[in-house]
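Appendix B, record 7
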Amino acid sequence: MELSDLHTMSRRRVMQLGGLSAGAVLIGSALGRGAHADPMDPGGDGASDGDPHFTSRFDHSRSTAQAAGETSYNGWPIGTPASSIGVVSYYAPGTSILIPVKSGDVATVMMYVAGRFNAEVEGLRAGQVWGYDYRRNVNNPSVWSNHASGTAMDLNAVLHPNGAKNTFNQAQVAAIRRILAFCGEVIYWGGDYRGTTDEMHFEIDVPPGDLRLSALAARIRGGPTQPGCSSASFHDGRYDYFGVGGGGYIYQSISSDGTNFSGWNPPVGAGFKSTIAVTVHDWRYDLFGIGTDDGGYHTTWDGGWAPGFRAMGGGFQGGLSTTYHDGRYDVFGTGKDGRIYQSVSYDGMNFSGWSPPIGGGFRSTPAVTYHGGQYDVFAMGTDNAFYRMSWNSGWQPRVKYAGRPFSAGLSATYHDGRYDVFGVGTNGVLYQNISDDGINFSGWGAPVGGAFRSTPASLYHNGRYDLFLQGANGAMNHVYWAGGWSPVNSLGGWFTP
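Structure tokens (predicted):
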């Protein structure tokens, strides 16, 4: 087939794109204008048959095609005209180039990738950027192309043709890897295909309804879901870390030495997001999390996981934090109205309603410590200031300290009269603030650099601090202080932002 003029569309493509509307996620108003689409030859892309990353998806797509012919090989519905499956044309951020892709979370993520590619890899070329195309996968015609569902795009296709290798230089590949790391497992790059590589090609690599996609889209939009690292506990020489991973499952990793951790086991539930709070006493674990309805939930492990989660109600941003002492549980969270709410239980089963003990103007997950009858709550304000609130027979006026922009919430430890508060800056650096009296704080030092995100989980025991933080790629990381900071150790996994 001859290569058509890259700046024009064939009559067949016009028919396919019939009814296609133009929009602008992230970048202004919708414009009623046509979109360049992927001609067959330069856009003859997609994974090859036999690529082990896609084997099960190819098999599923073939069986689906025999039954109904409805999905591309990543599981998304195909259709023509494009508007029948919700495809809309969006301007790539920072350009006047339109890309037709599926609207909603897919478009948010794809435009984010296209915008960063344009800014960090190389400028997008008009007439070389394509999205939706109703056709089969040219590199494996037994399945439908992801272009046919509006979940794939080709960037600067003529510069990086299908089948060519090493079309990007080392610095460009490094920039692409940074984009992929941010996107976790949601985006797959054709440069990583086995067999026939396709370096122009980027596609959605999760099926419809996968929470990793919605979580990434919310993070890109700056929506209400705050990054959450979840929580860790230490007791009797054992570390337990809990985090929310793909599908909203709560995963657990265990270590008996603080260095070697088990793999990730999914012990409970699904449909959770953000930070999980945990307490442990007498070998009983209590977990508190936020559901997709933004309400609080609670479950326990006491020789086995309790069936299901008990709803606690409320509506929260960020995650929850908790303390346990003398048979009493206290759970704290920042409501959508910016006030910090508290729920109390004396039996671990029946919790009070959510009472607002402290003012307003807060955001994200609060940190809480308890000692000697005193609660200390640390939270970030919407003004990026750092606040401390104390209760000792009554809530004291909040105290304001110099803050800094943090990517999520704070965590805190208390021991021997000393407070340590930790947070991850928007620059990916771990910060620490120290007080020996709970009143005067040292200011934000930066003990550990890196590309972190999320609310850190922090522990203290016997002169040692342990912190667990998400990396930019969604994997969990562990670092500790015992006379000096250890190297950062990746624990793997993929956790929701």
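Remarks on this record: Residues 299 and 309 are 5 Å apart (CA to CA). Residues 1-44, 62-68, 222-228 have pLDDT under 50 and may be disordered.
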